[in-house]
Amino acid sequence: GDLGDPDLAPKAVQKVIDTFGRLDVVVNNAGEQHADEDIRDISDEQLRRTFQTNIFSMFYLVQAALPHLKEGAAIINCTSITMYKGSPELLDYSATKGAITAFTRSLSQNLVKKGIRVNGVAPGPIWTPLNPYGGQKPEDIPEFGKNTPMGRPGQPNEVATSFLFLACEGASY
Question: Which residues does the annotation mark as catalytic?
Answer without folding.
Answer: 93
